[in-house]
Amino acid sequence: MPKVPQLSDSELKTFIESEQRMIHQDRCEERRINAKNSVEEYVYEMRDHLSNQLKPYTDEQECNDFKHKLGYVENWIYEDGENQNEAVYEEKLSELKSMAEPILRRKYECEHRTPAIEEFHNLISEAQNILSSYLSPDSPYSHIDPRDMEMVQKLVDEKLKWLQQQMESLKELKTHENPPILTEHINAEKEKLKQAIYPIFNKRKPKAENPNTKCQ
Questions:
Q1: pLDDT bracket for residue 9 (50, 70, 90)
Q2: Most buried among 59, 113, 136, 209, using CB within 10 Å?
Q3: Spatial contact of 184 and 114, defined as CB atoms under 8 Å apart
């Protein structure tokens, strides 16, 4: 039986280092290819979206500029960009996404702004109904300090005025235009009002004193 040659420590170390370099190179190449494919896929995907679901949210000039950029990047991938490193592909993808971001934001705003306004209106209506019933003899809120309810009334009036102003500024807004107020700001104002009035509305009514516990 032939004797298997043994590697010296230095030869074994060299072999392991070589294997590790190859593994690292394979991983780098895999990431590079994935990054390149991501750019290519984004080009095709966004070109399709611009002609379909994103079309209402961009004007002609912006759409044409973006399509031109997509075409430029597509040609670049098969020419000068054929064998670039991972970082270069990531930079190209970032450039494309930065052009898409305003369009995607308008789409998001158009889809979420109306529900946000409705939720804010519902909160204001709820508060107004409670304020209206406050002076009724059988009101479940009659135990609340009048000064607290006056503060609630002031806050509700302020938020209603603010919301009406925002709605007025949005009245003539086109879907391809940037909104003067964002959904996140509407939600933030709604949360401020909620956090201010709910602790007051949720104050527990003091327990009635049990006459049987009085000293005789």
A1: low
A2: 113
A3: no
What is the DSSP secondary structure assignment for residue 93, as one 8-state letter?
A: H
The 10 Å CB-count burial string (b at 16+, else e) for 97-132 is eeebeebeebbebbeebeebbeebeebbeebeebbe
Banded model confidence at residue 14, pLDDT cuts 50, 70, 90? confident
- Residues making up the chain, counted from first to last: 216
Whether the full predicted model's pTM is greater than 0.90, yes or no, is no
Domains of the chain with CATH codes: 11-102 (1.20.1270.10), 105-202 (1.20.1270.10)
Question: Which pLDDT tens digit goes with each residue over 182-199?
Answer: 999 999 999 999 999 999
Per-residue pLDDT at 133 exceeds 60? yes
Contacts of range 113-119, beta carbons closer than 8 Å, 24 or more positions apart: 113/170, 113/179, 113/183, 113/186, 116/183, 116/186, 116/187, 116/190, 117/163, 117/166, 117/167, 117/186, 119/187, 119/190
d(CA 94, CA 79): 19
DSSP 44: H
Q: How confident is the model at residue 156, as a pLDDT?
A: 97
Please return the burial class of 82, using the count of CB atoms within 10 Å of its CB with bins 0-12, 13-18 and 19+.
Answer: exposed
Helical packing angle, 60-78 and 86-133, nearest 10° = 150
